[in-house]
Amino acid sequence: MSNSLLFRQATLPGGEQADVLVRDGLIAEIGTISSEASRVLDAAGLRILPGLVDLHTHLREPGFEASETILTGSQAAAAGGYTTVFPMANTSPVADNASVVELELSRGREAGYVQVQPIGAVTAGLAGTALADLKGMADSRARVRVFSDDGKCVHDPLVMRRALEYVSAFDGVIAQHAQEPRLTEQAQMNEGELASRLGLAGWPAIAEETIIARDVLIAESVGAALHICHLSTAGSVDVVRWAKQRGIRVTAEVTPHHLLLTEDLAESYDARFKVNPPLRTSEDVLAVRRGLADGTIDIVATDHAPHPSESKECEWDVAAFGMVGLESALSIVLLTMVETGELSWVDVERVMSRTPAQIGRLDWQGLSVGAPARLTLVDPGARQVFATEHLAGRSTNSPYLGRVLPGRIVYTAFEGYLTVDDGALVPAETVAGHALDYAMQRGVPRG
Amino acid sequence: MTANTVMQSADVARAITRIAHEILESNRGSDNLVLLGIPTRGVTLADRIAAAIHAIDGADVPRGSLDVTMYRDDLQSNPLREPSPTAVPVDIDQATVVLVDDVLYSGRTVRAALDALTDFGRPDVVRLAVLIDRGHRELPIRADYVGKNLPSSPGERINVCLVETDGVDAVEIDRGDDA
Amino acid sequence: MIPHLLSTRDLSRESAISLLDTAEDMAILGHRDNKKLPALRGKTIVNLFYEDSTRTRISFEVAQKRLSADVINFSAKGSSVSKGESFKDTILTLRELGVDGVVIRHPSSGAPQLLAERDWIDVPVVNAGDGTHEHPTQALLDAFTLRKNIHGADSRGRGLDGAHVIIVGDILHSRVARSNVWLLEHLGARVTVVAPVTLIPAGASRWPITISHDLDSALSQPVDAVMMLRVQSERMRDAYFPNAHEYSQGWGLTEERFAALSPQTLVMHPGPMNRGLEICSTAADSAQSVILQQVANGVFVRMSVLYSILTGTSEVPHE
């Protein structure tokens, strides 16, 4: 009773109403609950989901703390309803060895907002030539299972083949940033009439599709697991669909922004809309939505990419690629997939929590009694003009500022304590205190 | 909308003939004369005056147009003015230049014209001929030859119509009481 | 009339003709002994050149000085830019210095638009060439030159309706080509672009142009002007075409092609020329070449643009 939360009359993903009792960091009871709790929260009208899992996050620490830190990125994640994030390896130093991933792990535990589950680099220094300490990271306390050079493509087919083979020994997966480097030299936006008119060097769809096609064939030949990051074109959906039909072990993600935004936004030369891979055409947007709806694309991942204002308030071709996305991801999925009838709430649970956890080789128990109490409660009927006050991370390079977005995260709970309470982020000291209590209680090693 | 016609076609013709006579008289003939109209209607009036001079003493007085847009002092405070063509057909050094405009009002157009003229050369004498002088000068400028003095209030508009541009010769005063 | 000149694409036919007509007036005045006009007296214009272009900068500078503006030349070389100052910080500095207008040349496409649309500075902006986007004053001077040669003294108020212009060369990387395509279309001309497939921009089939890869067949039609674009040698390294000889044979205005050209067809080039690569000297120096006229007309067109955007209020005329 000391550390218990009772959510009254929440709506489960399947639509049933239930009370959910959380005690000692676990889900203690689901149903009609008469017992008391230290805090009772009215969840009428709120949809309860297992905590969201982001397989593709940039936390920028170590090395780029002006853009984001593990703490601020964790806060952004909690604000967006996430309880687990997988930070990419393109930090400085690069997360290509056990010490960097363990550092990330312990900083994440100290912050205490979410589980920070590091992704390791595929190649040393992201240089694309020598393999990183793949087994060292896998055997470290961070237990790395997802490896990616994200930001760069593992373009050398020999290195890609070896990496796929090597990590298969410990059930690892390579998450490929599919971008053929020669076809995208200087590339700035989706190749097509608009890029030609704006004088911005084109980024052809085939630069992504040829790598995906190559890598699914390599994965098939070596029997290894391949994950495709931020798939963005209709052709990529076709290639993955074909590969899955052949039984190839491939999974794929799409970002919220590729579900909504199109290349037309580049017409303003506003670098908030500059992202890698680039925003594509409305035909591509429809194709990735369809791919997500029919299961060709397995998950939604944010590719949350914070940048300081000086990297965006500048000429387009000088600006950095990327947009923040943790805080807005569920809203965009609601807008593009749920409100359009393409996904149910059960599907949302699948593409934003269960499957990303499974691709990341995490034990996922969902909303079940005895599972860790990682919960997201969202008010699907709320609509608000998305503004910088909705951003909890350190950077404000969101493409959605000024747009009306549906859905509001009302509560996020991690290991049984609230990280978002009545729509507001719980302060860092409070959360860190809860995290410490939880660690002592569960005997989780401290970093 | 009340527009009173204050000069009819015959009045305009008489005024032009009289101005032609006065120019010839004060210049003691047509030697060295150059007529420069200020676009748009000043150019037409210059042509008419030249024709009148030809009728009187048979001379073909050189005439041209002098656009003053670039020389105005109100370029920043008014909507964009598109310039009109300038054509100064002869060397105006040592000439007697008669500037011709339809209405003399604040005097600012004439000031701009004097500046523009300076960039073309150094005439011996510059004179000013206008069809209407409506008063309200803002600069120390006066006309040498006036078709008609027409005292008016600043709220009124003076419309000079000429056959070449407007299909009819007339001068109207518009009280502008629709404001 | 127009607050900025960023591209020819957003220029209406009416505005374009008006700019060309004003340039006619500037040309008349440009032939006086005293070439100076007082229209921009007291105005300070900065020529913000992030890219070397002596020709364009001097043309703007002559235009500005003829209109009595005060001119500041800011070259990215030797300035704080080479010390890593951001574009935005440079612009904020210019704002505090109190400039009245900016002429900008920048290697990044869209930089002039950012300048015009952000709240960094609130003055008229003239695009003097941005990346591979647009070069609107070049297109205006090309149109002025064409109109003058086609309509002569009767040019005022007219477009280029029915004229046929062929643009040859590296369309993909050419801001001159883009600005010309839009402006010539607004003015009623028919445009054929001729280049190897690799140098045609993606999606250009949706532009108001005819695309050809065969210069000889394009030149076999009646043509009012053939505009040769500069080809840069680094394109060969990126596999756009095999070598200079093959380019010249396929897409250059060679002696043979020039000999077969109608004497009425104007030869144009935005400069600087690669003689012997995209154009032979016989063509460049011929009587039907208007390349030097283009240079002279550049000043008049730029005077017209500067006058039009730096004077007048945005109110509706009351006369």
CATH topology of chain B: Rossmann fold
In percent terms, what proportion of residues of chain A is strand? Answer: 15-25%
Order of helices and strands of chain B: EHEHEEHEEEHE
Topology-level CATH name of the domain at 51-359 in chain A: TIM Barrel
Report the count of strand segments of chain B: 8
For the record, the CATH class of chain B is Alpha Beta
The neighbouring-strand order within the major sheet of chain A is 5-16-17-18-19
Largest beta sheet of chain B: what is the strand line-up?
Answer: 3-2-4-5-6
Largest sheet of chain A: 5 strands, antiparallel
- Counting DSSP H or I runs of 4 or more residues, the number of helices of chain A is 12
The number of distinct β-strands of chain A equals: 19
Strand count, sense and barrel status of the largest sheet of chain B are: 5 strands, parallel
**Which residue ranges of chain B are poorly predicted, with pLDDT under 50 across at least 5 consecutive positions?**
none
Anisotropy-based shape of chain B: globular
- Please report the first level of CATH classification, the CATH class of the domain at 51-359 in chain A: Alpha Beta
In the CATH hierarchy, what is the architecture of the domain at 51-359 in chain A at level 2?
Answer: Alpha-Beta Barrel
Helix content of chain A: 25-40%
List its traits.
heterotrimer, A: 447 residues, alpha/beta, TIM Barrel, five-stranded antiparallel beta sheet, five-stranded parallel beta sheet, 12 helices, 30% helix, 21% strand, C: 319 residues, Rossmann fold, 14% strand, globular, disordered C terminus
What does this entry show, briefly?
Chain A has about 450 residues and is α/β, with parallel strands linked by helices.
